[in-house]
Amino acid sequence: MKTNFTLAAALAAATPLAALDLASRYQAEPHLSPSPRTDAERARIAGAVAPATDFSAPEPFEDLPAGAATVRARSDDEAFSQHSAGLSFEQELEFKLGNGLFKKIWVFSPASTKASDGLGPLYNARSCQRCHLKDGRGHVPEQPDYASTSMFLRVSIPGPVPPELQEITDYIGTAPDPQYGRQLQDFSAPGVAPEYRLRVEYEEFEVALSGGETTTLRRPSYTAASLGYGPLAEGAMLSPRVAPPMIGLGLLEAIPATDILAHADENDADDDGISGRANLVWSREFGQIMLGRFGLKAGSPTVHEQSAGAFSGDIGISTPLFPAHAGECTDLQTACQTAPHGGSDSRETEIDQPNMDLVTFYSRNLGVPARRNSDDPQVLRGKQVFYNSGCASCHVPKYVTHRLEDRPEQSFQLIWPYSDLLLHDMGEGLADNRPEARATGREWRTAPLWGVGLTQQVSPRATYLHDGRARTLLEAVLWHGGEAEAAKTRVVELPPQDRAALISFLESL
User: Fold this and answer.
1) Is 399 domain-assigned?
2) Is residue 200 part of a domain?
3) Average pLDDT over residues 388-408
4) How far apart are CA 316 and CA 400, in angstroms?
5) What is the pLDDT, as a whole number, of residue 4?
6) Average pLDDT, rounded, for the chain
7) Which contacts (CB < 8 Å, 24+ apart) does range 406-411 have?
C-alpha cells in the first residue's frame, strides 16, 4: 500500500508555491469539523490499519466493516436498507423521513400534490430508489425494449478549463453537449420529446484460465438511439453509468483527506506499477477545490453535492445547490425550458434545503452489513490470495475516520471499505474515453468492496463494474487491466482452488 509519496509532494515538486497553496486548499474539509489527532492516537491508528500479515484467523474487528455503525447481515433484499447502528431515537426519525424522500415518486407539474410535483421535464427516473434499487446497484437494460431506470449515458465534448481550476495543471476541460447537456435522459413530460433510447449490445468471448478452466466475458457497445433533438455534437464523448450501492457513504466522507492522499503515488515512485491519483473537483457547495470521493470517477466531493446533482440530472428536480427548474435541459430545448415546473413564490426550488438535509442524512447513514464467514478456512485463504495478488494495493482494506463531535455515528471508527478512493488507469478494456476533472478516459475510482457479496441478494439482476458488463465477481476481476493488469494475470494463473477461495473471500465482504 502507498504510504511514501503523496499527491501534495508531487505537486510541490513541480510548482512549489502554487502547489503548496493548492494542497492546503484541497486537503481542507469544510464539510467536517474534525478534532486534531494526538500523537498517541496516530500511533494507535497506524497499528490498526497496518496490512494483514497473518491469514490463519480474522483480524480484530474484521467482522465489523463499519465499526460501531455496522448492522446485522440480513438474508433478504433489505440488507442495504438498514440505518447505521448507534443512531439516536431522533436520528432514526430523521433517517425514516429521508428514506421517504428517497423513495418518493415525483409527478409532473402542475399537480394537486404540490409537494411532489416538478418531475423532469427530462429525467431518467421518478425517484432515487428507482435507480439505486433497494439502495443497491442498478441494472443494465434488457432486450428487446432496452428500458432501464438505473443506467444512463453521460455526455460531454472537449472544452476549456474553468478559471477557478486552471491552477490544476492536468485538469481536463470539458463542456456539455450544446443540445443534450451532460447526461442523456430517456423519459420526458407530456409535450417534451425524450432525448434518446439507450441500446446495449454484447460481444461474448472466452478467456482461458489455469487448470483447464475457462470463462466467458462480454464486451459491451452502447448506442444513443432515437435521438430526439438531432445528432450529438462533433467530438461527443459518451460514458455508460450504472447506479452504485448507497451503503457506508457517510463513513467514506469521514475518512481524513490526508489518509486518502497518503496512498497516492502519481509517478509510481516505488516502481510497483500502481500510481493512484486524487481527483480534484470544484465544490459548488463550498466554492473551492476539494478532493473528489463520490461517483465512479470521484467527481463529487460530498454526499450532499452528489445527492443534489442526482436530483437535478436524474429526476429533473431543482435544489438550492442546482436551482434550475428545468433540470438538465439545455437552452436549445425550448419545449423543455418552457414546460410547467414546481417552483413558486413560496417554493423557490422543487425540493428545499431542509428536505435535502434529510435525504443527505439518509444517504450518509445507510448501514454496512456485517461480514459473513470471516473465519472460514476457504475465506481466509482467499484473503491471503487477495493480498498476494496485489489487490490490496488499490482496494485498501481499512481506515480510521475523523473524530467528529457533530456526527458521532461516523466518528473515530475503524472501517473496512476496501478502496483507496483514488483514480487508477484500468486499461483500454474498461476505458470510456471520457475525462472528468483530472480523471482521464481510462481512469476510474477504486470501487469500495464492502457489501459486494450481497449485491445480487439485494437485486437479483444486478451486475458489476461501472457499466454492469460483469455478471459475476470473477468476470469483474478479469476485466481489470492497466495498473491492475499484473494482479489480474496472477488471478488467471492461480490454481483453480485458490481462485475459488478468492471469490469466496469477496463473497464474504
Assistant:
1) yes
2) no
3) 97
4) 37
5) 34
6) 93
7) 406/33, 407/32, 407/250, 407/254, 407/364, 408/86, 409/69, 409/84, 409/86, 409/87, 409/91, 409/250, 409/365, 410/69, 410/84, 410/250, 410/251, 410/253, 410/254, 410/364, 411/254
Q: Is residue 367 part of a domain?
A: yes
- From the list 371, 388, 372, 375, the residue with the least C-alpha distance to 502 is 388
Q: Which domain holds residue 123?
A: 7-195+210-508
Give 487's Cβ-side CA count (13 Å radius).
Answer: 26
- The residue whose grid cell reads 429525467 is 123
* DSSP per-residue codes, 179-242: TTBTB---EE-TTS----EEEEEEEEEEEE-GGG-EEEEEEEEEEEES-BTBPPPTT-EEEEEE
Residue 203 domain-assigned (yes or no): no
Residue 36 CA to its chain's centroid (Å): 28
* Verdict on whether the full-model pTM lies above 0.85: yes
* Three cell numbers, residue 442: 481510462
**Banded pLDDT at 299 (limits 50, 70, 90):** very high
What's the CA gap between 87 and 405, in Å, rounded? 14
In this predicted model, what pLDDT tens digit does every residue of 216-258 receive, in sequence order?
Answer: 999 999 999 999 999 999 999 999 999 999 999 999 999 999 9
Contact (Cβ atoms closer than 8 angstroms) between residue 179 and residue 337 = no
Number of structural domains in the chain: 1
